[in-house]
Write a structure and sequence with these properties.
Number of strands: 0
Order of helices and strands: H
Strand content: under 5%
Structural class: mainly alpha
Radius of gyration: 34 Å
Helix content: 55-70%
Number of helices: 1
Distance between the termini: 103 Å
Amino acid sequence: MLREPSPPSRSQRRERLRRLDRIAADLNVLLVVFAIGVATLDLTCLIAHHVIDRLPQMTRIVYLDQPAASTRLP
C-alpha cells in the first residue's frame, strides 16, 4: 500500500516560504518593468495624439477643369 505523505516539518515550511518570497520579489521586479513600459507607451500615444491634432489639415488638390488629355503622336 502507499504511504500517506508526512506533514511538512517547520523547517520545510520556512524553506517553502523563503522560496515563495524570492519568487514574489523577482515577479515584482518584472511587473515594475512591465508597468514602466506600458506607461511609456501610453505617454507616447498621448503625445502623438496631441501632435496630430495640432498639425495643419492636408489640402486637397481639386481640378476645376479636367487637365488636358495627352495627345498621342502617330
